[in-house]
Every structure is written in structure tokens, then in C-alpha cells.
Design a protein that fits this description.
249 residues, alpha/beta, Rossmann fold, seven-stranded parallel β-sheet, 9 helices, globular
């Protein structure tokens, strides 16, 4: 697949940055969106010799209404976005014993409202054009509620279900919808974590994701070892799942 114009949120670091480079190398004009514009400008300068280009774009997806307006206007001004990747996301511990509402609220604002606004804003234009692709970066954590991760698991489950339902609405209109569920990937978000099983290098994860997007996969869970573990947890009787989940933590 080739894309003329793409928008990627959370592009100042990690997977978003890697995906911006991936598509710019292939000739795509990538609107790289994030709050840290200085990092986006560095990214643009690093990619200046690619066949495509990076266009820095200041965007705070925690404001859903403003995000929707900004992305919709971008779709109109650039002549139509071919690809939109809602990658921006945050994580935080939400331990029920000492629950912290501001942490949960922030994850809802970014991972749910911000992602949904990013993905829905270009849809009216894509429907008119009869083509386009929207991608949400969820997580393998979307499939099970895990100790001290209620906010994160729930927010990623929301995104996965949102994408699944959206796909049913627009698939026959020529629009592809993809839900991507990575396991552990080296990034700023995971740097503070302890030991992580089957940890992937960022470039490896980006390559896998880019290829899944290009082949218009509807869902993509990786790596396979983590995918198998998630499926195993889903199949366990509830009492046994609770024991295993606590030991994992």
C-alpha cells in the first residue's frame, strides 16, 4: 500500500515516532502530532532526505473537542488523509486500595476521548472519497483486567471495542479499520517498568506494525508468545485466573 497523507499522534517518541519514520521513508507526507513540538522538529530535520516528509503538528489529544476540530480541518486542508493512526496514549498505576482519580481521568481523556476524536474526525471525508484507513494502537492489556491496572486495561479495551464496532459501519464503504495490540516494547512509557517478558525493541515493533497496517489487517496482536498468554488467561476459570493474575503482578 502507498499513502499520500498520514496523521500519526504521539509521534514525538516511541512507537509513534518510529511509525512516522517508517511511512516517511516510503514517500508519505506524515503529519506528526504531539505536545512536544521541539522533538517533532528534530524528527523533521532527521527525515529531511527521505522520499516523504515530516510535518510537525502541535496537538494535545487530551482535549477531545479541540482534537476533533483540528484533525477534521487537516483532512480538508491537505486534500484528504489516507491514513490516521491514533497512537498517543498514557499509562499509570491505578491500585484500588489507594485509588487516584486524576490518574484515571487523564487516561480516559487521552486513551479514550482523544483516540476516539482522532479516529472519527477524518471519517466524513473518507466516506465521501470512498477510501481511507484508520488505526488505533490499543494493547494486549485490553483483553484482561489486571491488578493495579484498571484504568489502563479499561481504556485500551474501550479503544478496541470502539474500533471493532466502527469497522462494522464503514468496512463496506471502502474504509479500513485496524486495531493493533502490542505487548511490551522499549519506550519512554515502559522504561520505568521492572522485568518485562518478551520485550521488543522499538524498531522491531514498528516494522511489525507497519507491515500489518500496509496489508490492512483488521486486528494485530503481537508478539505471538504474549498473544498466546492472553488467550490462555481468557480461557481460565475465574478463580484460577485471579490466582495467576496476582502472581504475574
Amino acid at each position: 500500500m502507498s499513502y499520500q497523507h498520514a496523521l500519526i499522534t504521539g509521534a514525538s517518541s516511541g512507537l509513534g515516532r518510529g511509525l512516522a519514520v517508517w511511512f516517511a521513508k516510503k514517500g508519505t507526507t506524515v503529519y506528526a502530532a504531539a505536545r512536544r513540538t521541539a522533538e517533532l522538529e528534530k524528527l523533521r530535520d532527521e527525515c529531511k532526505d527521505f522520499s516523504g516528509k515530516i510535518v510537525p503538528m502541535s496537538l494535545d489529544v487530551s482535549n477531545g473537542a479541540a482534537t476533533f476540530e483540528t484533525v477534521q480541518k487537516l483532512d480538508e486542508d491537505c486534500g484528504g488523509l489516507d491514513l490516521v493512526i491514533a497512537n498517543a496514549g498514557i499509562a499509570g498505576e491505578t491500585y484500588g486500595k489507594r485509588i487516584d482519580w486524576p490518574t484515571i481521568q487523564r487516561m480516559i481523556d487521552v486513551n479514550c476521548s482523544g483516540a476516539a476524536a482522532t479516529l472519527t474526525a477524518p471519517l466524513s471525508g473518507m466516506v465521501k472519497r470512498g477510501k481511507g484507513q484508520v488505526v488505533g494502537i490499543s494493547s494486549l492489556a485490553a483483553f484482561n483486567g489486571l491488578p493495579r491496572m484498571a484504568g489502563y486495561c479499561a481504556s485500551k479495551a474501550y479503544l478496541a471495542t470502539f474500533l471493532e464496532a466502527l469497522r462494522l459501519d464503514v468496512k463496506r464503504l471502502g474504509i479500513s479499520v485496524c486495531s493493533i495490540h502490542p505487548g511490551f516494547v522499549k519506550s519512554e512509557m515502559t522504561a520505568k517498568n521492572g522485568k518485562m517478558p518478551f520485550l521488543l525493541e522499538t524498531d522491531d515493533a514498528v516494522s511489525r506494525m507497519g507491515k500489518a497496517i500496509e496489508r490492512r489487517a483488521e486486528t494485530f496482536l503481537f508478539p505471538w508468545q504474549m498473544r498466546a498468554g492472553v488467550r490462555m488467561l481468557q480461557a481460565l476459570p475465574k478463580p484460577l485466573f485471579e490466582v495467576v493474575a496476582h502472581k504475574m503482578r
